[in-house]
Design goal:
The complex is a heterodimer.
Chain A lengths: L4 E4 L3 H13 L6 E4 L2 H9 L15 E4 L8 H11 L7 E5 L4 H9 L4 E4 L4 H18 L15
Parallel strand pairs in A: 1-2, 1-3, 3-4, 4-5
Helix pairs in contact in A: 2-3
Chain B lengths: L6 E4 L3 H13 L6 E4 L2 H9 L15 E4 L8 H11 L7 E5 L4 H9 L4 E4 L4 H18 L44 H15 L2
Parallel strand pairs in B: 1-2, 1-3, 3-4, 4-5
Classes of the chains: A alpha/beta, B alpha/beta.
């Protein structure tokens, strides 16, 4: 079973909250974070330091913020679905956006799911627990992409 | 306004359908599951054909749950229709099937399934799965904005002879169910309980 969630988020407060939450649900070992979209792509490709899959395991779930510098969440999603060797990686958009057009765009680019960050801490925790359980324990991923070859640079 | 907080489930196995209904009933959420016996009926529902043009009685679902092996139109064909021909190609669709065949999983994702679930062999795991599924897709996930399909006359190619399944899956009897199922005594016991529950409201 793949136990890693890769979370791409440029807001340090949000990253901190997520780490705290995963600590509470006893799953801090599963979380890896990157601060922008390009870094997320480098992680997934196993480029540079990310070639070390013991330290940076290939994730079973990619959590994407929408607004990020260098490459935003939609661009990362598009890269995963259209250009990567891992087109079926489960991708969940995780954002505070309530806009219809963001949801429509995310689904039309092939997001598996769209979660709106609750501001209430207990609802936030519940959402993460259910999300972790659903995507890492119940969902069947497409296995061919479990371990892509690391890219040597 | 139309409440889309329910799952539209295409499943031809009446035992399994009854079991899932029992689980939702037990959780106090019977209104959160509607079952139809094949893919063609899902298409008719989503298109708003015939009686389904009444969106107050048949609102659009928050999630479509598909068995893969169904008569008339199977899960893959239904998923493909939703992604390529429906008014709401972004409609969340989860496949729920006995199969854990890698080819089936890959094909489902290639056709655009949001998620793929394998029916667990025992009732306890099934209960757990169904609760998480319901909570995740109906309470946590934010659905895409859905366009309602305009009311339309049923055309000849959409006519189905399906009976009214809006009440409970007792109506599904008479469907072919010759496929082997899990021989788990726990499942069989739960199915017996489920059938007795549905006959004694």
């Amino acid at each position: 079973m793949i136990e890693t969630i890769l979370y791409a988020e440029d807001n340090e407060n949000d990253v901190f909250l997520m780490q705290q939450a995963f600590r509470k649900i006893d799953g801090v070992r599963v979380l890896r974070t990157v601060m922008d979209g390009q870094e997320a792509v480098a992680y997934l490709r196993g480029a540079g330091k990310y070639a070390d899959r013991a330290e940076f395991p290939f994730p079973g779930l990619l959590l994407l913020d929408v607004k990020m510098p260098r490459m935003n969440g939609f661009e990362v999603l598009e890269w995963v679905r259209r250009k990567s060797a891992i087109p079926h990686l489960p991708v969940v958009m995780f954002t505070s956006s309530l806009e219809d057009k963001d949801r429509a765009r995310a689904y039309s680019l092939g997001a598996n799911s769209f979660l709106v960050k609750p501001s209430d801490p207990s609802k936030f925790l519940t959402m993460l627990q259910i999300m972790e359980h659903y995507w890492l324990r119940l969902n069947q991923p497409s296995r061919v992409e479990v371990m892509p070859e690391p890219v040597t640079v | 306004m139309i409440d889309s907080k329910f799952i539209l489930y295409g499943e031809d196995d009446c035992h399994y359908a009854t079991l899932l209904e029992a689980i939702f009933k037990q959780a106090g959420l019977p209104h959160r599951l509607r079952i139809v016996p094949n893919g063609k009926e899902i298409v008719a529902y989503l298109r708003g054909d015939g009686k389904y043009s009444n969106r107050f009685a048949y609102p659009l679902p928050g999630l479509v749950l598909l068995d893969l092996k169904m008569p008339v139109m199977n899960g893959f064909e239904t998923l493909n229709w939703i992604r390529k021909h429906s008014a709401n190609p972004q409609q969340p669709v989860v496949v729920l099937t006995c199969s854990d065949d890698l080819g089936d999983i890959k094909k489902a994702y290639e056709l655009g399934a949001n998620s793929f679930l394998t029916k667990p062999p025992n009732v306890e795991d099934l209960l757990n799965m169904v609760r998480t599924l319901e909570n995740y897709w109906l309470n946590q996930n934010a659905s895409p904005p859905l366009k309602d399909t305009p009311a339309r006359k049923p055309s000849s190619d959409t006519k189905t002879e399906a009976p009214d399944h809006s009440r409970h899956s007792g109506n599904l009897s008479g469907m072919d169910d010759t496929r082997p199922r899990t021989g788990s005594p726990a499942i069989e016991r739960a199915q017996r309980e489920a059938s007795s529950q549905s006959t004694n409201p």
